């Protein structure tokens, strides 16, 4: 991919210092220095011009057909026959529903759960076609991922949007494919301990050797760096089973800012992808933290997309180009910092969980010892976080928590207690009317989801005034569990006026469908899966996603749910079938 970057850069005078394909490089800045885009104040925020253009093109060129085929398939699959046929379908292109998909954190469990549910709405899945759920993935405008969900999303995007089974198993990968091909998730090889003690040590040292050039270029090395190099082997192009333990390129040089060169991105076939992480303020302990978490709930959430990095949270509301991540204000520009593996690594950096008492414990301590063995001590740096040069130093000193810092500490997007990446989908400038939320965080003793992510998301949204409109949801996970809202799809916001807050269609990993033995409630710490386990996991997640139970009419009801806001906007009432669906799936607010 770096060759694309170079072609682009060659057009500009500052290209002469083009990046090495494997790590960040200092370059001369574009004329005028690092440009910081202000996103504006809530209610009047703006998107980048590139994102606006992508969304406009996707909406006009791709989505009309995608929606027509999704809805006609949903109707075909419905025993009751057509249920949306009225003026709504006749001129779809003038009123495309705006759907955002959110896929949660929770390690491999969340990545696999998200993948199984995405398969269940993928137009290419024949079973989903029969059930009438196929095609919602292709009809979505946005998709956001966090932590395990960022592994799923990053790998899917950079592999050019294959089907989920092809992504995960890569049945046709050539053993010598290099960065031009994706070799699958390779779940049979453990993420951090791929062999016996000696093999593992050699492997970990190899990961550090791969990031030495970054250190030599003058950037601090923290746990996120070697972590990213192992994630790269599983979730970025350039690795197969036969070379995974051998040092090498393994996806280095695949950049977020190069995604626009992918063929499915150029043709606007992908929902616009966004990955998030939490920033840690300088004195986190002095702020309100939800018990059991490590990041204050009001800390800025940063987002990474193919064009920009920054935050829409009102205290910062600023962005820089993704290609210049690593740069600081003025004329200190860097390229090659936005490695796809590194961004997935930031979003899933949960290692400060292993340093709550201020004393690092394994696996953090093991990595830290290795890092210090390689590069010596790095005083002043939090090695348990991703340490990123602060592009916004000096911006909004009274409201941006890290305004005075030279470096920002970024960590796993779920460490504030909101393990679902809803925040980027709530940004009003994105006009998302319906969120399809896939939640697989391990909340209960049996590693099932209890709804705490939605509860916390609502709490967080409430901290920002009118910035993030949010529908009413239960006030505690107890209610979720008691009412079984984590055991079946639930719609939140059915009775809220369409222009006041999005409708949330919530699908949780709350328990297996009736009659099945649970396989999707694996521990977050499980970092190896056999192919058989993966297939069983995907199948069960698919069943949870499709409510594969005869008589539920899920295909019908999903289509009713995702079009409900648009119908309301058009002044159309619910059809009889849809009214029944809403009765069945809407949270009744008790
Ligand atoms: C990754 O490999 C796939 C083929 O497996 C290819 O289509 C895609 O363009 C590659 N992505 C990058 C970023 O090189
Ligand atoms: C691991 O390395 C040590 C020291 O080099 C050696 O003594 C030991 O036999 C090795 N163990 C294995 C299982 O290869
Ligand atoms: C652990 O946390 C303490 C207190 O926040 C910090 O000073 C220290 O650098 C952290 N340790 C590592 C290895 O990052
Ligand atoms: C729900 O999950 C959260 C977060 O994992 C946990 O703190 C809480 O105790 C759980 N509550 C219930 C009722 O299961
Ligand atoms: C998964 O759930 C089942 C109950 O359905 C339970 O017996 C099992 O211990 C759980 N597994 C894990 C790893 O929590
Ligand atoms: C998940 O499963 C693991 C392994 O069975 C267990 O140790 C852990 O306590 C479970 N619960 C959570 C919330 O991780
Ligand atoms: C469709 O989903 C089923 C159930 O998980 C799976 O077995 C099959 O491989 C999927 N096919 C495609 C093309 O996604």
TrEMBL record:
Residues 1-18 form the signal peptide. The keyword Acetylation does not apply. PROSITE patterns: PLA2C. GO terms for cellular component: cytosol. It catalyses: a 1-acyl-sn-glycero-3-phosphocholine + H2O = sn-glycerol 3-phosphocholine + a fatty acid + H(+). Its EC number is 3.1.1.5. It comes from the Eukaryota. Residues 28-590 form the PLA2c domain. Keywords: Glycoprotein, Hydrolase, Lipid degradation, Lipid metabolism, Signal. It holds the Pfam family PLA2_B. It is an enzyme of class 3 (hydrolase). GO terms for molecular function: phosphatidylcholine lysophospholipase activity; phospholipase A2 activity. GO terms for biological process: glycerophospholipid catabolic process. Belongs to the lysophospholipase family. PANTHER family: CYTOSOLIC PHOSPHOLIPASE A2, LYSOPHOSPHOLIPASE 1-RELATED. This is Lysophospholipase. It comes from Clathrus columnatus.
């Amino acid at each position: 991919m770096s060759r694309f970057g170079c072609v682009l850069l060659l057009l500009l005078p500052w290209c002469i210092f083009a990046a090495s394909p494997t790590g960040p490089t200092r370059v001369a800045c574009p004329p005028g220095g690092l440009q910081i885009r202000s996103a504006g104040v809530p209610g009047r925020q703006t998107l980048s011009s590139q994102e606006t253009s992508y969304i406009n093109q996707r909406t006009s060129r791709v989505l009309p057909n995608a929606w027509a085929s999704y809805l006609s398939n949903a109707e075909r699959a419905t025993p009751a026959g057509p249920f949306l046929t009225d003026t709504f379908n006749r001129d779809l292109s003038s009123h495309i529903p705006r759907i955002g998909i959110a896929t949660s954190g929770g390690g491999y469990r969340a990545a696999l759960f998200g993948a199984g549910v995405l398969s269940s709405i993928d137009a290419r899945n024949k079973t989903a076609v029969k059930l009438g759920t196929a095609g919602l993935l292709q009809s979505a405008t946005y998709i956001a991922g966090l932590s395990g969900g960022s592994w799923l999303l990053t790998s899917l995007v950079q592999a050019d949007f294959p089907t989920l089974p092809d992504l995960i198993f890569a049945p046709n990968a050539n053993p010598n494919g290099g960065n031009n091909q994706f070799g699958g998730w390779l779940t049979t090889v453990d993420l951090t301990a791929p062999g016996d003690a000696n093999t593992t040590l050699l492997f970990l040292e190899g990961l550090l050797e791969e990031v030495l050039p970054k250190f030599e270029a003058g950037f601090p090395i923290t746990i996120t760096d070697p972590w990213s190099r192992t994630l790269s082997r599983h979730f970025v192009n350039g690795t197969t089973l036969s070379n995974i333990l051998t040092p090498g390129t393994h996806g280095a040089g695949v950049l977020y800012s190069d995604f626009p060169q992918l063929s499915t991105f150029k043709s606007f076939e992908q929902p616009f992808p966004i990955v998030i992480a939490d920033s840690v303020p300088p004195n986190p302990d002095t702020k309100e933290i939800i018990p059991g978490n490590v990041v204050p709930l009001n800390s800025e959430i940063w987002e990474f997309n193919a064009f920009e990095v920054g935050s829409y949270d009102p205290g910062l509301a600023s962005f820089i180009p993704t290609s210049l991540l690593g740069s600081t204000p003025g004329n200190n520009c860097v390229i090659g910092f936005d490695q796809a593996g590194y961004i997935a690594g930031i979003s899933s950096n949960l290692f400060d969980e292993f340093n709550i008492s201020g004393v690092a414990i394994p696996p953090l301590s093991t990595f830290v010892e290795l890092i210090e063995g390689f590069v010596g001590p790095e005083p002043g740096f939090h090695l348990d976080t991703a340490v990123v040069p602060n592009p916004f130093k000096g911006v909004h000193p009274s409201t941006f928590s890290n305004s005075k810092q030279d470096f920002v500490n970024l960590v796993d997007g779920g460490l504030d207690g909101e393990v679902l990446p809803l925040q980027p989908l709530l940004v009003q400038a994105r006009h998302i009317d319906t969120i399809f939320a896939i939640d697989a965080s391990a909340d209960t003793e049996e590693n099932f989801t209890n709804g705490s992510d939605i509860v916390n998301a609502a709490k967080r949204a409430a901290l920002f005034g009118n910035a993030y409109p949010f529908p009413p949801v239960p006030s505690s996970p107890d209610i979720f569990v008691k009412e079984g809202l984590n055991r079946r799809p639930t719609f939140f916001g059915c009775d809220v006026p369409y222009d006041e807050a999005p409708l949330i269609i919530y699908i949780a990993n709350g328990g297996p469908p009736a009659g099945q033995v649970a396989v999707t409630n694996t521990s977050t710490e499980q970092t190896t899966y056999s192919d058989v386990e993966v297939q069983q996991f995907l199948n069960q997640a698919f069943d949870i996603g499709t409510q594969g139970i005869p008589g539920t009419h899920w295909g019908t009801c999903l289509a009713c749910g995702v079009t409900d806001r648009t119908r309301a906007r058009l002044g159309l009432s619910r059809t009889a079938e849809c009214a029944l669906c809403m009765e069945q799936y809407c949270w009744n607010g008790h």
